[in-house]
Write a structure and sequence with these properties.
about 220 residues; mainly alpha; globular
Length: about 220
C-alpha cells in the first residue's frame, strides 16, 4: 500500500480500533446509555467508512452496506434484541450476496466440507445453546454467511477466519438465552471476537477488491 494511502486511510482503522477498545473497557460502566450506544456503533461504523473510501463498484458498495447494517445492529441490539437481530440478518444477506458474486472457481473437498459444517453447524449449535427456534432461524443466515465467506475468493486467513469468529461470538450471545451457563466467557469474549472478525472481514475484502483494480 503506498505511503499516501496509509496516511489518508489508516486513521479510519485506528479510530475504529480505538472506539472498539474503549467500548470493551467501559461497556458495563454507568456512563450513559446513549454514549455507549454510539461508541459501540462506531467500531464497525468506522470500518464501513474505511471500506467506502478504499473501494469502488458494486462489490465495494455491498461491503459498505453490510458493515453499515452491522453497525446499526450493534447500536440497536443494546435496546432491542429482536430488532438488532433483524438488522444483523440483513447484514448477513448483503454479505452472502457479495460472497456468492465472488466464489472461488475451484475448491477442495475439505473446503466444501468445512463450509457445509458452518452452514449446518451454526443453526444447530445456536439451538442447542439457546433452545429457541427464532435464534436457530437467524443462525441459518449466520451459517450461510460464514459458509459462503469460506467458499469465496477472499482470503480465508482473513475473511474466512473473520466469519468464523463472528459465528463463535454469536454462539456466546445465544448461550445467555439457554440453560448452559458459560460465564464468564460471554462477557469476556463476545465483543473482541465479533470486532476482530469484522476487522478481518473488512480489511480482507478491501485488499482483494483493490488488487483487482491494480491488475
Amino acid at each position: 500500500m503506498p505511503k499516501r494511502a496509509l496516511v489518508e486511510h489508516r486513521p479510519w482503522i485506528l479510530a475504529s480500533l480505538a472506539a472498539a477498545t474503549v467500548y470493551y473497557l467501559v461497556w458495563d460502566d454507568p456512563i450513559g446509555e446513549l454514549y455507549l450506544t454510539f461508541l459501540k456503533g462506531a467500531g464497525v461504523g468506522l470500518l464501513a467508512v474505511y471500506a467506502m473510501r478504499r473501494t469502488s463498484g458494486f462489490d465495494g458498495a455491498i461491503l459498505v452496506i453490510a458493515l453499515a447494517l452491522a453497525a446499526a445492529a450493534d447500536m440497536v441490539l443494546i435496546h432491542d434484541f429482536r430488532l438488532g437481530g433483524a438488522l444483523f440478518l440483513a447484514s448477513h444477506i448483503a454479505a452472502i450476496v457479495l460472497y456468492l458474486r465472488n466464489l472461488r472457481p475451484t475448491t477442495t473437498f475439505s473446503q466444501k466440507l468445512l463450509a457445509a459444517g458452518l452452514l449446518v453447524g451454526a443453526p444447530a449449535i445456536a439451538y442447542l445453546l439457546s433452545l429457541r427456534a427464532d435464534i436457530a432461524l437467524y443462525a441459518v443466515g449466520l451459517g450461510a454467511m460464514a459458509a459462503t465467506a469460506w467458499m469465496s475468493r477472499f482470503s480465508r486467513y482473513r475473511v474466512g477466519l473473520g466469519a468464523v469468529l463472528f459465528v463463535i461470538s454469536d454462539w456466546l450471545i445465544f448461550s445467555r438465552e439457554g440453560p448452559i451457563d458459560l460465564a464468564p466467557l460471554p462477557n469476556l469474549l463476545i465483543w473482541p471476537l465479533y470486532y476482530i472478525g469484522q476487522l478481518l472481514i473488512a480489511t480482507g475484502i478491501v485488499q482483494t477488491l483493490r488488487a483487482d483494480h491494480e491488475i
